[in-house]
Design goal:
Layout (H helix, E strand, L loop, with lengths): L2 H17 L12 E9 L2 E9 L7 E7 L6 H8 L1 H8 L2 E5 L14 H5 L4 H15 L2 E11 L1 H12 L5 E5 L14 E7 L23 H11 L6 E5 L2 E7 L5 E7 L13 H6 L10 H10 L7
Parallel strand pairs: 3-4, 3-5, 5-6, 6-7, 7-10
Antiparallel strand pairs: 1-2, 2-4, 8-9, 9-10
Helix pairs in contact: 1-5, 5-6
Length: 302
């Protein structure tokens, strides 16, 4: 069954599934951090939500997808989305990948990739639960992710129409994408990333990721989105290429000279040291840059 159809099937079953597990998803999601459990495709899945103390009547929702070997809690600690949510008055969801990885196509990554776990259906179900229980604007739902999570953000944009914009960091697109360009896109990448290489050649690590060269991916997204000519500017080690597209969308690329596989402006963590990943660049704060981009984007909603 195609992934989008499977996601829709999961939504049909969602109301009953949530009622059968010890979750708070059927209640109003409280202020602060709350933990939730749902069942998707027979698998018990977990996520947590950060709700700031003040929300507008129609609040944005950001889905933050951790990288391989990470977790929702790790992403919450390291990337600074909760303080940004307090300031911007939006909700943040932190899903957990099974075995700390995501299935993003082409057999990647880890156990979810090997077993073809439907992570698109899972994230779709998370969004549906939060939209049911909080005043989320359906035209202002966004996804961002680091590394393997960045790859899942591409899959979500390719396989659903839920997301007004995505923001992959240190990732790429694996597998097919028959309709690129439906979501706005800001892609952030270190030019010396050895794990997910900017030029698309095989990276180092447990999975030799070899997606398309990032410039080719951005060109494809811009072409499909009917974008105009890009404007390019340089700010220190960062180069920012911005393009305005049809229907008010945008496709931006931010590259960082001398930066590797990392989240710019993120917290240096024990996970990074344990995995031998690169130190976060201090060229800019990716979370701030992404939220500024997201705040200007709206999708069709519904």
């Amino acid at each position: 069954m195609p992934r989008f159809a499977r996601a829709l099937s999961a939504l049909v079953l969602l109301a009953g599934a949530v009622a059968c597990v010890p979750a708070e998803a059927g209640d109003v999601i409280p202020v602060g951090r709350s933990d939730h459990t749902i069942v998707v495709d027979g698998q018990t899945r977990t996520f947590h939500v950060y709700r700031p103390s003040e929300l507008p009547a129609e609040a944005p929702l950001v889905v933050m997808l951790h990288g391989a070997f990470g977790s929702g809690a790790q992403a919450e600690r390291d990337y600074g989305w909760n303080p940004m949510a307090d300031t911007g008055r939006f909700v943040v969801a932190y899903p957990d990948g099974l075995s700390r990885a995501w299935n993003v196509g082409a057999g990647c990554c880890g156990k979810p990739g090997a077993q073809d776990i439907d992570d698109v259906a899972f994230v779709t179900a998370v969004v549906t639960v939060i939209r049911r229980d909080l005043p989320v604007d359906p035209s202002r739902v966004y996804a961002t992710g680091m590394s393997n999570g960045a790859m899942l953000s591409y899959r979500l944009a390719c396989d659903t129409d839920l997301f007004a914009a995505i923001a992959p960091v240190a990732g790429t697109l694996l597998g097919q994408c028959p309709q690129p360009g439906r979501s706005s896109l800001i892609h952030i990448h270190g030019l010396t990333d050895r794990r997910v290489r900017y030029d698309g050649s095989p990276g180092i690590g447990q999975v030799a990721v070899d997606g398309p060269p990032v410039p080719d991916l951005i060109t494809r997204w811009r072409t499909a989105g009917g974008c105009g000519a890009a404007a390019v500017r340089t700010e220190g080690p960062s180069t920012i290429s911005t393009a305005t597209c049809a229907n008010g969308r945008a496709v931006d690329l931010v590259t960082v000279s001398g930066a590797g596989h990392q989240w710019p402006g993120g917290r240096d963590s024990a996970l990074r040291e344990a995995l031998g990943l690169d130190e976060p660049s201090n060229a800019f704060a990716a979370t701030t840059t992404i939220w500024t981009f997201f705040a200007a984007q709206r999708g069709p909603g519904g």
